[in-house]
Amino acid sequence: MSSAAAKQVTTKMSAAVASATAAAAEALAANAPKSVLSIPSIIRYGPIPLSELADQNGRTPGAAIRQVGPTRRIFLLDPNGHLTAEEMDGLAYRIKMLTKNTGLNSILCANSIEKDDVDTTIPSSVLEIDQETEPKSSSMDGLFNYQSSVTHLPNAACGYDPRAMHKFSKDEKRQTLNAMMRLAKAIKGGSPTAGQNDDHSSKIPFITVPHGITMDGGYALSMGSYVLATSDSRFKIMNPARGLSLDPIGLSYILPRLGWEFQQPSANYPVGVVLALTGFEANEGDMVETGLATHFMDSFGKLGSVERALANLAPYEQQNLLKEPTRKYGESVGGGAGSKNRFQGDINAKFRNVAVAGLLHSVSLYDAMGQEITSASDQATFLADEDPSLVLEGDRDPMFGDRESMLLNVAATFQDAFEKEKSVEGIMARMREYASAEANNEEEIEFVNAAKELLEGMEAQSPLALCATHKLVTVGKEPKETLDSCMKREMRVQLSLFEKEDFKNWAKSGAKEGEFQDWKHKSVKDVTKDEVAELFR
Fold it and tell me: pLDDT tier at 132 (50, 70, 90 boundaries)?
């Protein structure tokens, strides 16, 4: 490229950033928080060097938003999957506003890892990517592996940087968790219900493609309308191995209810407790079979097709099949029950967002409703009737391989321990009994080895944090609990654990995830009820 051409491109890029800055200034004038400035809104089409978006300290943003027709694409840019408190707060505000913008048809959120130059350039959309990432094998040598997963898979979303948190003041830690809570609520609000058309509700569906590992509070970005898992999608809870518990996004409400929304077999087994206590790494099949993801889109390369199709779909306000009735001057919406001039409001409500749902269905191999998109009904019946505890090793017929869930099999196999035992000590004692059992055949060996891995996962974590997490999930399962009440409780516990020596020692140690062992308590037996109760005050 000639120097003149390069200068012209640079000028256009600067103009695009200037336009985004002007848009942000307008948002501030409309009483938006200053944190919106931390999330660049890119308007111009074409690649943008991340250096153009860097702040005064040279730090590039953790996320940015671009326009793709009537869709807004959120790029998660930080390679570690982290966002600052300011970025979470700014993103929460932007999402809250976007989900009410009827000039859009969707919001699409995905990490950007497709190109070698991702650290220097943000593409205008994945449509510019001409190569598809090769899907990695989803087979597992063990049930979970802390080190290998972090080494070989990208980080999709991991919330805040936990090692940096121990240097923060109490107020800064509280601000970070509050920002994370607001982000979760903003995205959860992006799940529009048919007929819900008042000015205060979300209308625009929020779509997430978590390509890589999602950890702990990073799951807030997967709490919207649709979650499209890929062959490399994973989810795990690592906080207890850091001396922490559940981040305040409502996981203590969500985990005990996994499988409920789509009436899946996993609703009958303690899959959420296994995730919360053992560090089990759920793969793409586990995520779909428990409702952590809504669809399985096998290849991340399909994101280009999704973007292209969304760019060509009509925005929410134009998704009309029925002609709006003529209203006379002064006639109000929704008159009295006996009114002759009663206007019915949005008569196209049931048709809106249907095209988006149909698109996502078409690019997926199967969804969380429990039936392969291309399968016959008798296949779904077979899967629903099969006892997961009988297939711990994953020995299904090949035609059903895509629906395999090791998490479901594990939860069903060890249901007595994780569901019937009322304490972490009781669960670990039962698992220790299983792990020391005599094995005389291949099936029994598989059972014993699985018990050992789950037990080792629990033993690698902070005893105090483990007990706190168990209590959060136990209380969160109560029928009277709500997502909001669970978030507030998670906030109190997490703020308390930030000040405990387990977290501080872990953060200062520099130990790899899952390898730190110098906890205050040698085992959960040494954790008193008063110590746990203090965390909840």
Answer: very low
User: What pTM did the predictor assign?
Assistant: 0.83
The residues near 43 (Cβ < 8 Å, ≥ 6 apart) are 16, 19, 20, 23, 67
CA 18, distance to chain mean position in Å, is: 32
Asked if residue 149 lies in contact with residue 283, where contact means CB atoms within 8 angstroms, the answer is no
Task: State which amino acid sits at residue 183.
Answer: L
Q: Which residues contact 533 (CB under 8 A, 6 or more apart)?
A: none
Q: Is-contact 92 39, C-beta < 8 A?
A: no
The residues facing 194 across adjacent strands are none
Q: List, in order of start, the domains of the chain with CATH numbers.
A: 13-232+298-311 (3.90.226), 414-535 (no CATH)
- The pLDDT of residue 401 is 47
| 3-state DSSP assignment of residue 275 | helix
SS3 of 286, please?
Answer: helix
CA distance 341 to 269: 53
Give 412-415 contacts, CB < 8 A, sequence gap 24+: 412/269, 412/387, 412/388, 413/388, 413/389, 413/447, 413/450, 414/274, 414/450, 414/451, 414/454, 415/269, 415/270, 415/389
Judge contact between 347 and 324, C-beta under 8 A: yes
Handedness of CA 392, 425, 484, 187 (dihedral sign): negative
Beta bridge partners of 314: none
Q: Is the pLDDT of residue 22 over 60?
A: no
Under DSSP, is residue 236 helix (H, G, I), strand (E, B) or coil? strand
Contact 210, 156 (CB under 8 A): yes
pLDDT digits (tens, 9 = 90+) for 382-425: 444 556 655 555 444 444 445 789 999 999 999 999 999 999 99
| Torsion sign across C-alpha atoms 298, 303, 309, 310 | positive
Residue with the two structure tokens 């948190």: 165
Q: What confidence tier does 191 reach under pLDDT thresholds 50, 70, 90?
A: low
- HSE-CB of 128 using CA atoms within 13 angstroms: 15
For the chain, percent of residues with pLDDT exceeding 70: 74
* SS3 call for 333: strand
Q: How far is residue 138 from each of residues 107, 134, 212, 236, measured CA to CA in Å?
A: 28, 12, 12, 15
Residue corresponding to tokens 């005893």:
463
